[in-house]
Description:
Pfam families: Amidohydro_1 (PF01979)
Number of helices: 12
Keywords: Hydrolase
Structural class: alpha/beta
Radius of gyration: 20 Å
Number of strands: 10
Shape: globular
Bound molecules: zinc ion
Protein name: Amidohydrolase-related domain-containing protein
InterPro entries: Amidohydro-rel, Metal-dep_hydrolase_composite, Metal_Hydrolase, MTA/SAH_deaminase
Organism: Pseudolysinimonas kribbensis
Amino acid sequence: MLTMDDAHTIVPGGDVLVVDGRIAEVGTALTVPDGTHEIDASGGIVMPGMVDTHRHMWQTAMRAYGADWTLTQYFVWYYLQYGKLFRPEDYVAGNLISALDAIESGTTTSVDWSHGLRTPEHGWAAYEALATSPGRYVFAYGNIHAAPWEWTADPEVRKILEASRDDARMYGTQIAFDVSDQDENFPELAAYRAAKELGLRVTTHAGVWGATNDWGIKNAYDAGVMEEGFTYVHAASLSAESYQKIAATGGNVSLATESEDTCGQGYPPLHQLRKYGIPTSSRSTRASGRAPTCSRRCVRPSTPIAPSSTTSRINWSRPRR
Length: 321
Ligand SMILES: [Zn+2]
């Protein structure tokens, strides 16, 4: 049994006692109440569920389609063409399949980077699908089909954000958007402010070669809206100054090494993240639409590298709130 505690304790032949869905005790030869249902896992490994800090669950409706695409092919298909055809029920299907796929791969907690919510109906459907799927989820609400300063101002969207934020079935709610244009007027500032008003963290693809780069970090830093616990996805093509800004404001980075190595975001910047002491976690990005093997390959326990704020909030023995 791998406890994944701070001492990296391994308990050969250990027991885990679960009472009412929560871990009550861990040890060897535990005394358990009469009638306890026993699962014999001898010969296997018992360990905490893995955490995926960035997963586009809706895309799993397409299963492994696009697994070998470059980022450009991905953008064209999902952002410009067929992504717009997804109906609310397609989101429900994608989220549920992705949830089962994650569990099957040992991932019990995911940040769902749900960035195709082009109508409030899509938003409600995606949210309810997460809340009723097995596993724990952070609902990162996004809409690539509208400007972030527009959809975050929509009263109907705010209703969904407030409902999911206050829903004990969810592990959290975040605002998901990118700063993709080099614009000194920084219109995305309104989206950062919406997050602040709602008391939500921001997760953003920052440092994706050719798509989001230093100017997004510069704009946000200069406006004073980079806050502790915000997540910067990939962070693969940033300057030293941008890493310093992420570190100085308490941000964390979500890596997807398999995706970064094959799609074109830039190579995983782990050496930079270690250099600047930025908490780092890993996830499967659009791999959620791929075969489960990718999740197994890409998503690892947080122990080998410092956990992000998302992962650090999650203790494997801590009950779901
Ligand atoms: Zn992504």
